[in-house]
Write a structure and sequence with these properties.
The chain is globular. The strands form 2 sheets. Strands 4-3-2-1-5 form a 5-stranded antiparallel beta sheet, with no helix packed on it. Strands 6-7 form a two-stranded antiparallel sheet. The model is unreliable at 135-139 (pLDDT under 50). A hairpin with a 2-residue loop joins strand 6 (51-54) and strand 7 (57-60). By secondary structure, the protein is α+β, with helices and mostly antiparallel strands. It folds into 2 domains: 2-47, SH3 type barrels, CATH 2.30.30.730; 50-121, Arc Repressor Mutant, subunit A (Orthogonal Bundle), CATH 1.10.10.1650. Helix content is 34%, strand content 24%. Residues 2-47 form the DUF5606 domain. InterPro entries: BVU_3817-like_C_sf, BVU_3817_N_sf, DUF5606, DUF6852. Pfam families: DUF5606, DUF6852.
Length: 140
């Protein structure tokens, strides 16, 4: 599911991939539903390709978002109520205890939590990738 959700540098929010054109993507803002083009010069990244640094390697963003959903029982996170940087990092340590304290910045954590809130408000709650069915496995 997260493969089709995109972050575009310089644009606030998250976008759903609608279609591909020559040298551009057609994307839809998940909050407003407004469709716009994203050109080849724009830095576009799929949320499915993002991972968080941990002490043992990397953890996919889908697993972290699912852990946030579990901790908050599917409700949005009130980022402002968390307060200062130390409180945000302590909150994130409850979700992902082994995150790399040096490589993961507080701004990264806040962005992750704001993405989680955007996804929840858009009705996107399935963060983990779907397991391939037996029929798909036999085709390969």
């Amino acid at each position: 599911m997260l493969k089709t959700i995109l972050s575009i540098s310089g644009r606030p929010g998250l976008f759903r991939l609608v279609n591909r054109g020559k040298g551009m993507l057609i994307v839809e803002d998940i909050a407003s539903g407004k469709r716009t083009p994203a050109y080849a010069r724009d830095k576009v990244i799929s949320l499915g390709d993002i991972s968080i640094y941990t002490d043992e390697g990397d953890t996919p963003l889908s697993g972290v978002l699912d852990a946030v959903k579990t901790k908050n029982e599917g409700n949005p996170v009130d980022i402002k109520s968390l307060g200062k940087d130390d409180a945000v990092r302590a909150y994130f340590a409850e979700i992902l205890p082994n995150f790399d304290q040096e490589k993961v910045y507080t701004t990264d954590i806040k962005k992750l939590l704001s993405w989680y809130n955007l996804l929840i408000s858009a009705g996107i709650t399935d963060f983990l990738p779907e397991e391939p069915t037996e029929q798909e496995e036999t085709k390969e």
